[in-house]
Design brief:
Helices cover about 50% and strands about 10% of the residues. α11 packs across α12 and α17 packs parallel to α18. The protein has about 475 residues and is an alpha/beta fold. It has a four-stranded parallel beta sheet, with helices on one face. It has a three-stranded parallel beta sheet with strand order 1-2-3. It has two domains: about 350 residues, TIM Barrel (Alpha-Beta Barrel); about 90 residues, uronate isomerase, domain 2, chain A, CATH 1.10.2020.10. The radius of gyration is 23 Å and the shape is globular.
Length: about 475
């Protein structure tokens, strides 16, 4: 039987095949947003088995296993690694038409040369076969990155992070740029005043300042921003359900901040005012340093309170939200643009109903100073599958310039997730090849292939200054 993941997987015609094999396939990877742990790169960690490197922390797989009726002990519980893997293997054949099926087979083939379709019958043999391979020199964390031609990795880091592991990586000179990304979500989260006060104390200790005012708070955050810049950081990132906005005339931050210092709870309007002001101030810092700012918008998080109590956040109980996006987003970007303090910006939306809203919004603030200054980011989270990516590509093509797009990222916690770049590249080439076959775009390989190269690699390299 022909291998399921074959040379022309997803490629629908000869144009698509040529675009992929001649222009996309061999390009290096710039993964400018992920959640990989820097410690595991710095220590060049080796994993004992596929469960450790593939299942641990992967809430995509966890959700599928729960849907299939797998007991939680085999997902996040105390079951043995082999037993967890076997339960995942039992689930895999039932993920047909979910992106997990394609990703699973693609990752087994690209990293381990396994062409078998994973199921309960071959689970144990594949588990032992891959465990043996993972102990060889080429399968440490750094080896896994090098195997996929990863050139740049941008992790996601809290402002309080010491970045000690980034420093260790830089000193090792591993041939891969591993850079931090400034993610200040916790620094702006005032939904729980006692948690924020504790965060504030830790921030003050880190910068050796007692923080007693909002101005001092911003100064402390700016010091951490400076430190991240010195450590090579060139991107910020914000995970918000939507952007808050408030005119500065409406904000009494000192009064709000005093309540926080006392540990008093804030009203929802006060929380919104605080977050709105912080977002603007941080955006100005990004512009001053020439960073790229990213906004991941639209997730409805921690829907299951019982499981949040039992397992904590980021365990597979988040979903798509239906928050209003356009007006505040426009006001926020316009405020920064009015004072020429709008940094290069990438907007990611999670609700596909907002696709056209985001694709149209970026066009309002491109000013000709930077190619593709305003980006509508790659299809994200629940949307980074064939249908979601194709809709993102088509909508961006209709309302903006696909040729300026900075392309794919993994947004992953797994070192085996990098074939998602291949998946995106194949889909992109298939879409363009389909258009060539229909006569919708010229059958000019130099023209179309050049655009493929730009989207898959060169646009990101130039845009981020890598």
């Amino acid at each position: 039987m022909k291998d399921f993941i074959n040379d022309n997987f997803l490629l629908e015609n000869k144009f698509a095949e040529q675009l992929y094999h001649d222009f996309a396939k061999d390009l290096p990877i710039i993964d400018y947003h992920n959640h990989l742990p820097p410690k595991e790169i710095a220590t060049d960690k080796r994993f004992d088995n596929l469960t450790q490197v593939w299942l641990n922390g992967d809430h995509y797989k966890w959700r599928a296993m729960r849907a299939f009726g797998i007991n939680e002990k085999y997902i996040t519980g105390a079951a043995a690694d082999k037993d967890k893997f076997i339960k995942w293997a039992e689930t895999v054949p039932n993920t047909l038409r979910n992106p997990l099926y394609h990703w699973t087979q693609l990752e087994l083939k690209r990293y381990f040369g396994i062409n078998e379709l994973l199921d309960k019958d071959n689970a144990e043999s594949i588990y032992h076969q891959t465990a043996e391979i993972l102990q060889t020199d080429d399968y440490s964390v750094i080896g896994l990155l090098q195997k996929m031609k990863v050139e740049v990795v941008c992790t996601t880091d809290d402002p309080l992070d010491s970045l000690e592991y980034h420093k260790a990586i830089q000193e090792k000179n591993i041939g891969i740029r591993v850079l931090p990304t400034f993610r200040p979500d916790k620094a702006m989260d005032v939904s729980n005043s006692s948690f924020f006060k504790d965060y504030l104390n830790r921030l003050g200790n880190l910068v050796d300042t007692e923080i007693t005012s909002f101005e001092q708070y911003l100064e402390a955050i700016a010091k951490r921003h400076d430190y991240f810049h010195k450590m090579g950081c060139r991107l910020s990132d914000h995970g918000l359900n939507h952007l808050e906005y408030a005119s500065s005339k409406c904000v009494n931050l000192d009064q709000i901040f005093n309540k926080l210092l006392k540990g008093e709870p804030l009203q929802q309007q006060e929380q919104s005012l605080f977050q709105a002001t912080c977002s603007l101030e941080l955006a100005k810092m990004d512009h001053q340093k020439g960073w790229v700012q990213q906004f991941h918008l639209g997730a409805l998080r921690n829907n299951n309170e019982r499981m949040l109590r039992e397992l904590g956040p980021d365990t597979g109980f988040d979903s798509i939200g239906d928050f209003p996006q356009a007006q505040n987003l426009s006001r926020f970007l316009n405020t920064l643009d009015n004072t020429s303090q709008l940094a290069k910006t990438i907007l990611y939306n999670l609700n596909p109903a907002d696709n056209e809203v985001f694709a149209a919004m970026i066009g309002n603030f491109n000013d000709g100073t930077v190619r593709g200054k305003m980006q509508w980011g790659a299809a994200w989270w629940f949307l980074d599958q064939m249908d979601g990516m194709e809709k993102q590509i088509n909508t961006l093509s209709n309302m903006g310039l696909l040729s300026c797009f900075v392309g794919m990222l993994t947004d992953s916690r797994s070192f085996l997730s990098f074939p998602r770049h291949e998946y995106f590249r194949r889909l992109l080439c298939s879409i363009l090849g389909r258009d060539m076959e229909k006569g919708l775009i010229p059958t000019d390989m130099k023209l179309v292939g050049g655009m493929v190269e730009q989207i898959c690699y060169y646009n990101a390299k130039v845009y981020f200054g890598f």
